[in-house]
## 1
Amino acid sequence: MPSDSLPAVLRKARADDAEPLTRLFLASRAAAMPYLARVHSDEATLAWMTHVVLPGTDVRVAETHEGGDVRTAGFVSLDGSELEHLYVDPGLRRRGIGSLLLAAAREAAPDGLTLYTFQRNTAARSFYERHGFTAVAFDDGGRNEEREPDVRYRWAPLGR
């Protein structure tokens, strides 16, 4: 964990997390990928978070506690061994929160994980590669709504 890491605690997501997680999702994507097409309104994204992500995947929320304030710092969403989402508040990047969320995902899927990320998202690609993921396939963007070329990554524990 970096020397400027920020203590965070993980907890299972609740239904009332939909709004803060949607805000974090939108802010993180805008900061990391300003080139990415917005294919849904904020309202539609909230509905997706409320009715698809939260009830349909295993979501863990990272929170920081500073001066009595609780801040949603990031979240990870798993569907079995598929890492569907890992987002960190843009103002809290490079402080160990993404690594904490990824560790929780690995614990939940000890036999291995797979994920997609956009090819142009070099920060995410570097993050996953630093954490032992290997690129296994490159796609032209035909499989995602944004029509953005992506890359499939896989992580397997040593010896598997």
## 2
Amino acid sequence: MTDSSKRPLAVFDLDNTLADTAHRQRFLERAPRDWDAFFAAAPHDPPLPEGVALALAHAEKCEIVYLTGRPERCRRDTLAWLAAQGLPEGSVHMRRNDDRRPARRTKLDVLRRLARNRDVRVLVDDDELVCADAEQAGFTVVRARWTAPSGALEQAQEREGRT
């Protein structure tokens, strides 16, 4: 049962929704993929104005929650990046360092857990598979289509469970 006395939740993905990862895609386009370099470059991601504006707009009526496939070891850099962009404070749900499940499974698990106690008003994400599964589960979804899709990132999210 959801707690209607609390503000609803607006759930935002990070990579290619709020943060532009284009400058670090090169680390995923080689073999073997350089995951350490990919995540080490995340603090230098420029913000995506469309995503930031949407988060700020939703913050007027909702509590913001960040849901990312980034591993837990990136938490400090992620929190610093969110603060530096002036994004609303909110809980940050990250993947366990050893979790290699597809992003659509890990994110849907978190969404369902959040929805047990709170109204999840919207999920904003760029991953088509995450969005499709969330919609099928009954969540309202906004597809973040303001960046060019990355085949390397898509493969990493779905097949390698890395982000």
